[in-house]
Amino acid sequence: MAVMIRTEGLAKRFGATQALDGVDLEVQSGTVLGLLGPNGAGKTTAVRILATLLAPSGGRAQVGGYDLASQPQLVRQLIALTGQYAAVDENLSGTENLSMLGRLLGMAKREAGGRAAELLERFDLAEAGSRTVKTYSGGMRRRLDLAASLVGRPPVLFLDEPTTGLDPRSRNGLWGVVRELVAEETTVLLTTQYMEEADQLSHQIAVIDQGQVIAKGTPDELKAKIGGQVLEVRPADPADVDRAAQLLAELTGNEATVDRDIRQIGVPMPDPAWLPVAVRRLDEAGITVVDLALRRPSLDEVFLALTGRPAEAPPPEDRQATERSAA
Amino acid sequence: MSIQAPSLPGGPPGARSRRIGPGAASRHALLVARRDLLQVRGNPQLLIFLLVQPILFVLLFVYVFGGAISGSSRQYVQYVIPGIIVQTVTFATAVTGIGLNEDLAKGIIDRFRSLPIARSAVLAGRILADAVRLVASLAVILGVGMLLGFRITSSPPVALGGLLLIIAFGMALSWLAALIGLSVRNPETAQSAGFIWMFPLIFASSVFAPPETMPGWLQPFVDVNPITVATDALRGMLAGGPVLDPAIKTLAWTAALTVVFAPLAIRRYRRLS
Questions:
Q1: For B11, which of A78, A85, A111 is closest by C-beta distance?
Q2: Does the pTM of the predicted model rise above 0.90?
Q3: Is pLDDT at A85 greater than 70 in this prediction?
Q4: How many Å lie between the alpha carbon of A168 and the closest alpha carbon of chain B?
């Protein structure tokens, strides 16, 4: 398998801020790399550099074997970018947005129209195609935006937080499209602050924090990194939650995470053999348990283990508002 | 370390090439211009700004101030129409900056910049679209002016030359507007920064009133003001009066504005991040 995207020591400084600090990435052709990190970790900066929108202040990068610094025009023939908000023209119709891009990419009028119709169909926008984008819902705009990226059938696709602000149904739809594209040999670099998203879509994940890659591997490798499994327990009585958490923490010597809303306690369990012990202790303490399971740690927990702090993602609405005002 | 160029699946149509020729670059600019013009249709506010506002200006100035300035509104029409054409052309260039800034804020420029198209397409297309809009506004004002009694007294080639001169002047101002639009942070600022500098230039000029009636300290400014020379040139070329001197000065301003602001705007565009 060929390497489609490679960065070596990629760095970017904005004034006093070191947005990227020596990032090495490698994405195999036809796979998805999930670039996972909290807000401000440098994900968008990395994508903007790879999409030829921003010049790095250090290091180098190649896409499809072409050097970004010396051959940006060739790189642009391979890539497409879908950013954090829909970069579509509100005053044009869906069809016009797509066929304009087709024409810019060198298609003849009829071909561009055909491609637009095909994409609108695929993204469930066929009926809205002739309406101005102003009348579209947020989810429709994002779908049109992704469709716009695909007009030229790019072999490399950059998706910068593609599902931020989408409802679960639209999100699942988008995941489906990404999977289809990968089945068609598209190489995808996806940034996300949703652990589940990286886990669902990526072949490889790079965890990025403060401009540096702090961990790399397959989703399974990353989860294995924090070792063992997690025991999840839900006491029947909300009053028992704290007692159960304390008991499990003492037993395993690990800190327990408590989600009060769903009465759920999670605690890393290095050895599954301790499971019966845990059950017995809970029983002895008179705590009735409605749910008890061993599972692989979530990427949230991976992030906590890697950085010592949780990957806190503010709600999507707040994020968009702050980023817009900062833009 | 070297990377083997992989065999690439799919890919955009057409052979991969390193350079974009002038033919393709003009095609890209035309496509972007077409898109910019299509926007007007979806944006009634812009249509009002471009067409209705100039008509209001004509009616207001002719019937409210005409008598005071020229003795009668009939006489004033003949004076003010060339001025209002220049004013409209100047205002219309602000649309270049505001439009660019909106595209910037919405990420549309990012999309264009990541496409394998000529780097010049976005700016050239925008300014081209602006020229088309200028022609439309200009035709509307001339039409309304003629209904109110404005008469072109020069020969058609001279009159046409005057209008072309003003369009060229407007395109030169568009580069300044483009620079502003690419430099400010958001469309609201683009809106105010795009217009604020225009007011002193337009009012302290020969657009609405003869400069002789203005105080002495103001006259040196009025005399070198590019809006004054452009207005005088157009007035001469449409309705009679001195032509050569203001026309040469207008050409000089057009060239100077383009030479200064086109490279600055292009540089700003290239350094967008």
A1: A78
A2: no
A3: yes
A4: 24
